[in-house]
Amino acid sequence: MKIAVVVCALAVTFASLRAETKLERGKRVIDEAVAALGGDRFLQMEDRIETGRAYSFYREELSGLSLAKIYTRYLVRPEPPVVGFVGVRERETFGKREDSAVLLADGQGYEITFRGARPLPDNTLERFKESTLRNIFYILRQRLGEPGLIFESRGADVVETQPVEIIDVTDGDNRVVTVYFNQITKLPARQVTNRRDPKTNLRVEEVTRFSKYREVDGVMWPYDIQRERDGEKIYQMYSDSVAINRDLKDDLFTLPANMKILKKQK
User: Fold this and answer.
1) Contact yes or no for 3/106 (Cβ under 8 A)
2) pLDDT tens figures, 175-185
3) Distance between CA 53 and CA 203 in Å, rounded?
4) Residue 7: inside a domain, yes or no?
5) What are phi and psi of 140, to 5 degrees?
6) Which one of 9, 38, 142, 174 is most buried, by most CB atoms within 10 A?
7) What whole-number distance in Å separates Cα of residue 225 and Cα of residue 259?
8) DSSP symbols for 128-185
9) Gap between the Cα atoms of 183 and 17, Å rounded
10) What is the pLDDT of residues 147-185, one digit of tens each?
């Protein structure tokens, strides 16, 4: 039955889209994805709180587990849009009492503990910037209309048992993210991106999977996010709850004036 549904979905797609160019088809799939995520409600999302369990892995073995709460706030982007603008602030807290945290905002980052705030190393900040700019949800929320941003269809296929539309997203700095949108739900199911390791200059492939979508105040959001690097699972966030538009304030993303600043990590 599942195979028949997939075959029918692909047949309809192939029959109806022959006249579309790759760019037209890519733009249509992106428009459908935005609509499926909640349309204007998604595009006007100002902040988000994800609460759940964060797992880390080393060589496919569980190496860490923590209760986590991730606070995200979107910034007003410049108009006209600027390539490479990181318009988001994030605070990741851990433990029942949220007594440790990672703060990433305005090009700076800190690891916060009872000892004080330790600035994060430059490579960690660069990794946050790149992962943000390549994240499909950030692209759809913050980067649409950006100069040089194009969506090019690679056609339809069945990947990991899902009928998908495959889109290459390329920005003005030649970042490329390949995104797989479920043909039935229109939602992002998987994304693949490649980058160079700054130390070894070797190519690194990162794959992120999105599943278990639920509606949150009119926005569809994945409660299960898994990431792997070069074929090895490295991270999973499983949310128990997600809330949006909670009017998160600036002080959540800034250090208290009296907090001790520790020596920067190398």
Assistant:
1) no
2) 999 999 999 99
3) 30
4) no
5) -70, -30
6) 142
7) 33
8) HHHHHHT-HHHIIIIITT-TT-EEEEEEEEEETTEEEEEEEEE-TT--EEEEEEETTT
9) 13
10) 999 999 999 999 999 999 999 999 999 999 999 999 999
Q: 3-class DSSP state for residue 30?
A: helix
pTM (two decimals): 0.90
Do the domain assignments include residue 266? no
The CA-atom distances, in angstroms, between 39 and each of 28, 42, 156 are 14, 5, 23
Using an 8 Å Cβ cutoff, are 245 and 47 in contact?
Answer: yes
Total domains in the chain come to 1
CATH number at residue 33: 2.50.20.10
Residue 10: inside a domain? no
Token pair of 48, please?
A: 């988000």
Identify whether the C-beta of residue 164 lies closer than 8 Å to the C-beta of residue 180: yes
Tokens of 130: 């790149």
**Interatomic CA distance for residues 121 and 10, integer angstroms:** 47
For residue 31, is it within any domain?
Answer: yes
Under 8 Å between Cβ of 167 and 184: no
Q: Is 220 helix (H, G, I), strand (E, B) or coil?
A: strand
- Closest to 71 in 3D by CA, of 43, 86, 93: 93
DSSP 3-state percent helix, strand, coil across the chain (nearest 5): 20, 45, 30
- Print the domain residue range for 81: 17-253
